Every structure is written in C-alpha cells, then in structure tokens.
Amino acid sequence: MEVSASPASASTTTTTVIERSFAGSGDSEFPVWERLGAVVRLSYGIGIYGAMALAGKFICSTAGIDCTGGFHPSLEAVLDGLGYAAPPIMALLFILDDEVVKYSPHARAIRDVEDEELRSFFYGMSPWQFILIVAASSIGEELFYRVAVQGALADMFLRGTELMKDARGIASLTGVLPLFVPFAQAFAAVITAALTGSLYYVATAPKDPTYVVAPVLNSGTGREDLRKLFAAWFERRQMKKIYSPLLEGLLALYLGFEWIQTDNILAPMITHGIYSAVVLGHGLCKIHDHRRKLRQRIQQVRVETKNNNL
Prior knowledge:
Blueprint: H1 7-21, H2 32-63, H3 75-95, H4 98-103, H5 105-122, H6 127-158, H7 161-164, H8 173-176, H9 184-204, H10 220-262, H11 266-309
InterPro entries: Rce1/LyrA-like_dom
Protein name: CAAX prenyl protease 2/Lysostaphin resistance protein A-like domain-containing protein
Keywords: Membrane, Transmembrane, Transmembrane helix
C-alpha cells in the first residue's frame, strides 16, 4: 500500500524543518556555532595580520629603511584619510547596486566576490569583532605592503647609479634607465600593487573541479540547455577569478599613491579601514536584511499553516 502525506501535513513538516534551522538564533542574532566560528576566524585573522606587521618590520630593518612609514598622528592625516576614502567607496557601492548588477555580468561577478568573502569570513561576527578585524587588516597590510615592500622598492630605485656597481636583476634598471629614478615611488607602487593582486589570486582563487555531475538528458534541447548553463557557470567562475585579485590590486595601487602624496602611513591606514568598514558593513547589512525577511516569511507561513489547520 502506498501512503502519501496530505498537503497540509507536508507543509507543516517543511515549515518545521526550516524553523529548526533558525532555532539556534532565537532571541540572539547568531547560533552558538556561528559565534564560535567567528571567534576562531577573528583570532586567525589577527594572527595573520600581526605576522604581516612583524614581517614588514623585518624587511625594513634588512633594507635599512624607516619601519614607521612616516607615521605621525595629525588632523591633516585624518582628513586626508577620510578624503581619499570617498572615491573608492562611492565607486564600489555604485558597482554593487542591485540595478547595476542586473544589467552587468561584470558587476555581478564583483558582487559574487564580495558576498563570498562576507559569508566565508565576516558573517557571524559581532560589531566589535568586525571593527577589530578591520582595524587589524588596515594596520597589518599597510605596514607590510606599503611601508615594507613599496618602501624597500622605492628606496632601491632611488639609489640609482649607486646600486649599479653591484646591482643584479630589476635593481640595475635604475642605472640602465635613469628615467626610472624620478618615478621610483610610482614604479614601486605599481609593482607592489601587482604583487598584492598576485598573492591574493594565489591565496583565494577557487580551484576548478575535477569533474561535474549532471543529469543524463536524452533530448537534444535538454542537452543544449545544460551546456548553456554550464558555460554561464564557468564564465562567472572565471570572472570571479579575475575580479577578486584585480580589486585588491587596484586598491593597493590607490593606497600606494596616497602614501606617496601624504608621506604619512596613517592616512592610508584610515582610508583602508574606512573603505573596508563601509563596503563590508554595507554587504553584511544586506545579508542580515535578507535573513530577517526570510525569518519573517517563515513566521508568516507558520501562521498561515496553523490557520488552515483550524
């Protein structure tokens, strides 16, 4: 004998299952396991950025350059940091706007990159944890990429013909091509940005799957539709590989030129922190809003189901 559930009971079962997935939230915003995971990710992130700061100090001491990057607390540095933060924030928020994402596959890819980063690392953090990791990333990355890497490269290029006697590789270009010397700071910023994007690509680029499981379709139309779906998926995946390191590289280039103009590493730190806080905070707010609407919808379905059973 075949037994089938009634529509009402099936709806009740589905609603109960969905409710259980949010049962851990209760009155709190996140389940316990999400909060524990956030603490682990926070500790890991602070450790990584702390190691970057120490590595930057080691590079500076080895190269014989100032490890503070001209750090000097001042109102001018704060205002510079705030002013330089506005253009990249406005540009990225425009790209991530829902209306732009609808019509631009490139904006869709950038949005996917940002959402994936939010869900994989930042989601579940409390406000103070979020602020702490943003501050740690701003300080650690600026001390490593800007002060150590860009500063060491600029110092190497600025020595010019003094390095020509014993220089090898790219350092000797300053002697072969004297035009590099006036633009040593800019050239160092470009190389640092390229290095930042390359390292980010190596660290975060998703690996292509060994195989893809798909249903066997006998009809030619079905196979063609499946092929188009797979092609669209693969294209979005490739764009995510490109835009993720590209965004990091462009931001690194922007911050590098800001440091050149301000000559105070505090300004890029502030710009970096505000940019990350606004962009990532905006994305997290949208995720929380979608989650809240889903909970409201679940509650509405539960009420409607109870009313139908009466």
